[in-house]
Amino acid sequence: MKILAEHVEKKFRQEWVVRSFSFEFESGQSYALTGPNGSGKSTLLRILAQYSLPTKGKVNFLQDNLSSFEAEQCHSLVAYAAPYVELIEEFTLSELISFLIQLKALPAQISLDLFQQYIELQPDKNKFIKNYSSGMRQKIKLGITLLANKPFLFFDEPTTNLDEKAKKWFYQKIKEQSNRLIIIASNEAAEINLCQHRISILDFK
Ligand SMILES: Nc1ncnc2c1ncn2[C@@H]1O[C@H](COP(=O)(O)OP(=O)(O)OP(=O)(O)O)[C@@H](O)[C@H]1O
């Protein structure tokens, strides 16, 4: 599978954030999207995930035979973790996992125990998500994204709020991926170095 971006441009009022971005992303590969604060990494990441529309140009998700997925299928191909993608704060972790399974955002076989083992956290099962620490919430978001049965994984500043142990956990989980297409928007050297390819957004201004 591929993500094909063709002549993508994005303008907010008078500000061009991305100019003429064309790129082919392939399954089994990982890509770091880099650039200084405010350069447009998150904006471009959302467009590539088809969460928002470009001002000009287009993004297509392609099947192995290179035909495009139908627009209504695209959403089901993406798992996305970012500081601006919120968890449902009023749920406990157990309720959150059940809800995500119902939405098909997590596979049916994921249990609370399995999830906790995967994220290497044993938080209080009855605690509301809003009462978890910011690092724990971030790890939960990353766990949900990694465990989603989706071919395209998007991460925006994934190790924000994580301690060293949790960062190493995340790096290891990314290294274990082989068939998925991974895009990480980041300025962190360790996250950028995890990826096989590096794209500087400043080249598309
Ligand atoms: N909805 C919006 N309306 C107006 N301007 C926006 C909007 N979203 C983003 N911008 C502007 O687009 C530019 C790029 O923002 P973006 O968040 O994509 O950058 P970034 O590279 O991800 O930054 P950071 O590293 O700080 O997270 C900024 O000038 C920002 O203010």
UniProtKB/TrEMBL annotation:
Residue span, ABC transporter domain: 3-202
Molecular function (Gene Ontology), one example: ATP binding
SUPFAM superfamilies: P-loop containing nucleoside triphosphate hydrolases (SSF52540)
Pfam family, any one: ABC_tran
Origin: domain of life: Bacteria
Gene3D superfamilies hit by this protein: P-loop containing nucleotide triphosphate hydrolases
InterPro entries in the record: AAA+_ATPase, ABC_transporter-like_ATP-bd, ABC_transporter-like_CS, ABC_Transporter_VariousFunc, P-loop_NTPase
Keywords, in A-Z order: ATP-binding, Nucleotide-binding, Transport
Protein name: ABC transporter ATP-binding protein
